[in-house]
Write a structure and sequence with these properties.
The chain is mostly helical. The chain is built from 20 helices and no strands. It is a multi-pass membrane protein.
Length: 469
């Protein structure tokens, strides 16, 4: 084996580990939230900010990742991302209250947002084009294991050690990764970085943050209706201002012309509304199991295994189903199935029927994973030329934004039903069940978007790689 091939293989493993860290940390926290809340002396129903802050920060940083890489170099940015991620993890572990933990998660999210896009760019510049798809598939495999391992590992660490270790385990990985990156990642030749649309970026970022905080403001910021309304209006006005700015700027952050591609427009809107409901489940289910069912953190993590395993298993059949029935039928029908599978949690009670719960989670995991694969390939399949990179970036941004907003929506719905029914154990059970139905209906509403797909879309299209979802 030549030195160059050894370096390429080491780079593959390095980027794969970075992606694994990112996906692991997105799920490892979920089963630990009640334990963290108890230690920080706060309500477990207020812990959604820990998840939302991480995802929203990633959504903000992703649009700037390409410019940051060009400006400072891929190797330097990747090492810096690992350092930020590890430092944020250290601060998370030593947080003394919820505010400190949320701020630390923001720092952690800044590093996590750069790991995958910058790592993918490093592969693009180092791996021969005829081997790129194989390289990306290799890198994606550990990332698929993150959601499988994360909830179980998080629950186990909370029980055998303490919640601090779900963050401390990132530090040695970050240090080793930084050393490996300095050895195996090629330095970039000096080049002038392209201009960056800072005005558009700030308008879009402010809009995303404001709208997301408006959904999460009831508990996180303690705002009442007037404050929430102001946040929402300022956020929507900022997003509207971005589109006016982009239509007049010769080099906007995202060109409005890209939305003239029907598959991209429908796919992005479908992604947003579909994930608003389904993304709340990894947050709500562990909370439900521990608060209402009395499960330990480790057992709650084990109960999520069927959902993650089904999600991995269905990906093999996704291309066949799409070719057989077309994007329109698959997405519109599958969206309805996701909504019903989420709403089926209404029939759960406080008794321990673990096999029924496992079956429900298995079905939801399979439908949800099929949805992601179909949505992503449909969104990207007609992109060509200069639109390929920006379209992929917009999709990644919308995914993270929708996941964060989904958790915020789920927490807001749970808060509303709790205020309506009360906090007694029986009433809390009803609040959770009502929340599952509510979020299921939100997901189901996106089927109206997918019915707008033309029947012939996807019949002869070649599926692009979608394993990085």
């Amino acid at each position: 084996m030549t030195t160059e091939s050894k370096g390429s293989r080491a780079l593959l493993w390095l980027v794969a580990c970075g992606f694994f860290m990112q996906t692991l940390d997105g799920t490892i926290v979920n089963t630990a939230l009640p334990g963290i809340a108890k230690n920080l002396q706060t309500s477990p129903l207020k812990m959604q900010s820990v998840v939302v802050a991480y995802l929203l920060t990633m959504a903000m940083i992703i649009p700037a990742s390409g410019w940051i890489s060009d400006k400072f170099g891929v190797r330097q940015v990747f090492i810096g991302a690992l350092a930020l991620f590890a430092t944020g993890s250290l601060f998370c572990a030593f947080s003394q209250n919820l505010t400190q933990l949320v701020l630390s998660r923001i720092l952690q999210g800044m590093g996590g947002a750069l790991l995958l896009p910058v790592g993918r760019l490093a592969l693009l510049r180092s791996v021969p084009h005829d081997q790129f798809l194989q390289a990306i598939s290799f890198v994606a495999t550990p990332g698929l294991l993150g959601p499988l391992i994360g909830p179980v590992l998080g629950g186990w660490l909370v029980e055998v050690a303490s919640w601090h270790w779900i963050f401390l385990i990132n530090i040695p990985v970050g240090i080793i990764g930084g050393i490996a990156a300095s050895i195996y990642m090629k330095g970039d030749p000096e080049a002038e970085s392209s201009s960056f649309d800072w005005t558009g970026y700030l308008l879009l970022a402010f809009g995303m943050v404001s709208v997301s905080l408006a959904m999460d403001a009831g508990y996180s910021l303690g705002l009442r209706r007037a404050g929430i309304l102001l946040l929402m209006i300022f956020g929507l006005a900022s997003i509207a201002g971005y589109w006016i700015h982009a239509s007049r700027n010769p080099k906007p952050l995202f060109s409005p012309k890209i939305f003239s591609i029907p598959t991209l427009s429908i796919g992005l809107l479908g992604n947003l509304f579909s994930r608003l409901g389904s993304s709340s489940m990894p947050f709500l289910v562990p909370l439900f199991l521990q608060v209402n069912m009395g499960y330990s953190p480790f057992r709650a993590g084990l109960m999520l295994l069927p959902m993650a395993a089904a999600g991995i298993g269905i990906k093999r059949f996704a291309p066949f189903l799409i070719y057989k029935f077309g994007y329109r039928n698959v997405l519109a029908t599958n969206t309805i199935l996701i909504g019903f599978s989420m709403s089926s949690f209404f029939w759960l009670d406080s008794s321990d029927i673990w096999w029924l719960l496992s079956l429900q989670l298995f079905c939801f995991g399979a439908f949800n994973s099929l949805q992601f694969t179909a949505m992503n390939t449909f969104t990207l399949k007609d992109l060509e030329g200069n639109f390929t990179s920006s379209g992929n970036t917009i999709l990644s941004m919308v995914q993270m934004l929708a996941m964060g907003m989904g958790v915020a929506c789920g927490a807001a719905a749970l808060e509303g039903f709790t205020d309506l029914f009360g906090k007694e154990p029986t009433n809390m059970l009803l609040s959770f069940k009502s929340t599952f139905v509510c979020m299921g209906l939100i997901t189901l509403s996106s089927s109206f978007i997918f019915w707008q797909i033309k029947k012939e879309d996807g019949r002869s299209a070649v599926l692009k790689d979608s394993v990085l979802d």
